[in-house]
Amino acid sequence: MKIASLQVGQALILDQEHCTIVRITENDLCSLERTKDRAILTRTKAELINLFLIEKVVFQGKETDKKPTDTNKQAMDLKTLPEKQQIIALKRYEYIKEAEKQHLEPCCVGLESIIAKVSQQLADNNPPSPITVYRWWQRWRKGDRNITSLVNYQRGSKGHRKFNDQFKALFNELLEAIYLKREKCTRQSFHLALCHKIKQHNQITREPINIPSQATSYRMLDNVDKYTVMAAKYGRRKAEQYFRTVGKGIVPEYILERVEVDHTPLDVMVVDEITGLVIGRPYLTCLFEVKARMPLGIEIGFEPPSYLSVIRALRQAILPKESISQCYLEIKNTWPAFGIPNTLVCDNGLEFHSAQLTRVCAELNIELIYCPKQQPNYKGSVERFLGTLNNQVCHQLKGTTFSNINQRGDYNSAQEACITLEQLKEIIYQWLIDDYCQSPHKALTANPLIAWQEGLKQTEPSLPESKQALELILSHEVKRKLSHQGIQFLQLFYNTEELRTIRIRYGNQSSVTIRVNLENLGKIWVYDQYSGQYLIIPCTEPEYAEGITLRQHKAVLKERIAHKHDRIDTESLFQQKEALRHKIQQANQTNSLRKRTRAKRLNTPALKAAYDINVDQLPNIPKAEAGFLLDDLDIPDFAIMPPHEDQ
User: Fold this and answer.
1) How far apart are CA 291 and CA 457, in angstroms?
2) Whole-prediction pTM value?
């Protein structure tokens, strides 16, 4: 640090202009000469002091035109120097400080007694000579009494002082040829290649180049720009990420302004509640509200990252969550977060680029924002939350897989696993509501719960007009042809009298927009252009379709193809459901972890409930309702048909 005072010859920067004090009168009026045009400015000492306090005056050395030299290099702070150099500078300062007490200007007179006194105090067995102390003194004065001016600086750049331009050219050529490559070249290999290249050069030139030592080659490699080395060896993206500048990021002004979404496989193995066999690692999809650092909705299960998993998490995020505390009685607090987000920030996964999600966000008035490719830091809040969840919950459970193989060591995750999926859900919900939301967050002045409550004073969360309207929006939209059989979707038929009216109005084989709940094929919504409303159309085989998911239905169709059924009635549908149940049971007991995981995706509460139905006890389904005429051609035909282009 430089020390300055208001005296003649003092250089300073006044309002970004370089000036020098050339005269000070008795009434403390300072005349300043501006360097660029030699103009004279007048300020009082009081004015300069006030300008110094508001950082409009910066003191410099006493010579404004002094050019930096090798001996004039100074560090801004003594602590930035190596410890050895700090000790040397402090020792030299002790000699100068004692000399300053006896002499106003640097001189050699009387320094012998001063050196003897200080060396005894410092226990310095190798005291300096008077002329050495005098040089230190002069350097300290010229350096504006800055202690860092007492440090010895080496001339030139490390590793380059002994070598000429020819050597530097050979070094840089070899650097580009073998070192700055994706193929790993060790420093020792580079040194040997450099020595060999120099020997070849010396054989054909009259001015030989000195062969560097191994330490010199290593020092020169260390001086190569670190960004350049990392970009060459690991790629520019890796270098940009490593040397990135981290700021505060986007700061929302109110809750629900910015919500980030992401998936992650949980770092724990779960077991089947019946067989006790490991069925794999479940996925977690999370919508995270950034303003209050509040999880808005999560989905835990074996559905891989897809449009369906996003819709499940979005449904929970929008709706109030009183049912969570009712399902898990050990949870003491509430989860008050709900509402339609203003913006949804996601990565570039295929599920986020689907036309269905784009339509859903448009109907809910949600702005969909995509992060740049391979830049997860653009949604860092949800990334950090998922890491916290894995660290504080999953890594504490038996059967954890940890974050990487190095942390896992020889821990056998599959052998130690004992947590079921339902138990894991309860643990995660309890941690989220009773721990995370109640704990202070370093990015907030309080915990997420208080931050959310404070945010409610500024804005009120938005909700859809009804829960049924939300289910309609979150459904899967496709186009189908309308016929006398109604509407066919994946070899299931849906028909009512309302469809006959639409067919009369718009003609046979007219195209209509339908929406399907992927988790319940018992009914569909059909858009009526005349009324502008969606009509609820049930399946003609409700005993089969009610509660069955799209994934389960496709599995049944696969079994049907395998057994080559030509026609399917209600009884045969239940037989195939029973076949699916047996297949799930067999997969749950197999040694293949992948098969057990797939079986878990197919197993749902609705399918379990269907297992208990006795086919013989099913009521007879009439072929036609009153006022709804059918002929033989109206009977649904389940023969294998070519799939529709939208299927």
Assistant:
1) 13
2) 0.67
